[in-house]
């Protein structure tokens, strides 16, 4: 039986991952494929129980698993640890690197019934349907970093190899070809040498994809264009940190950060997680939106297990619950039926039953 390693992590990660598993089990009930789920520690929870953010047995299990489902890591309790030991660097970045998950896909699709939930005007966000392809194992996050004395200073290095850029941009072209045929490469080539290199390689890869319309955009302009006229975008491909920032921003094009799912892939294995964090401000209250994690579960079925029908069933069940007016607090406006985290998971399971 294929197995999924589940890493709930910290804060709301503990609350949202069980909801995704509940939905995955429900959708696979009548399917020939069954999945085995096994929980392991990561992040602050792992520091507290096992002494480090990515324990050896977690890494071994993740390396051996067919797929990984992750909640979120981090929280104030561990913020003062040395950087490399923290949940973020020692846990999340470490597992992304160890599994070579270089391609992070973050779909940004506005569902019609959530248009009113966005803080942006309906005519701006309706029909938004884009994907951000974020490079995940290079760039500013993984370059040399350090501190110097006399005078005190600190540095992080943004470095990309030819091969690292080529493989992510190539995937961007493939995705654009399967969608609306438009790829926007986001960089800061007016300032950064690494971005000029990124552009050169992108132009070289483009020769293989004459049917895809390639544009380049500076990251500052991209942030502005995403809220000004988001439907101009189809696929965006970009450097690790630019993609991090742009996807939190883009999540509001869907109404809430609680809606943005993600798949981190390396061609063989996938790790699936919401793009948001552990939300310490709402953790433990049963109010977090579990839909980004539930939708990440759908991405897992699609990309790791080739179960397109079941992935769609989950996506339709989520839409059906929202169509009935059910909302978690982050999406709610007066008159909506507000559900807690667990109740939203139950509602999605119930909607699956009514397919
Ligand atoms: P965050 O995404 O956790 O929260 C930002 C805001 O969005 C908060 O107000 C939070 O309540 C809200 N929010 C986030 N997810 C939500 C959901 N599902 N439903 C409803 N509201 C939601 O970002 P932050 O506050 O900057 O970071 C908190 C911690 O999470 C930090 O330790 C950070 O390093 C970590 N983090 C982890 C991940 C990850 O594990 N992938 C991602 C981002 C941040
Ligand atoms: C994300 C998060 C992480 C990132 C942090 C927690 C290391 O913000 O997955 O978007 O920056 O990649
Ligand atoms: Mn982020």
From TrEMBL:
GO biological process: L-leucine biosynthetic process
Pathway: Amino-acid biosynthesis; L-leucine biosynthesis; L-leucine from 3-methyl-2-oxobutanoate: step 3/4
Name by which UniProt lists this protein: 3-isopropylmalate dehydrogenase
Keyword annotations from UniProtKB, A to Z: Amino-acid biosynthesis, Branched-chain amino acid biosynthesis, Cytoplasm, Leucine biosynthesis, Magnesium, Manganese, Metal-binding, NAD, Oxidoreductase
Predominant location: cytoplasm
Subcellular location(s) per record: Cytoplasm
Gene: leuB
Binding positions for NAD(+) per the UniProt entry: 75-88, 277-289
Cofactor note: Binds 1 Mg(2+) or Mn(2+) ion per subunit.
Source species, domain of life: Bacteria
Species this chain originates from: Desulfosporosinus acidiphilus (strain DSM 22704 / JCM 16185 / SJ4)
Residues holding substrate: 96, 106, 134, 220
SMART domains: Iso_dh
Cofactor(s) required for function per UniProt: Mg(2+); Mn(2+)
GO molecular function per UniProt: 3-isopropylmalate dehydrogenase activity; magnesium ion binding; NAD binding
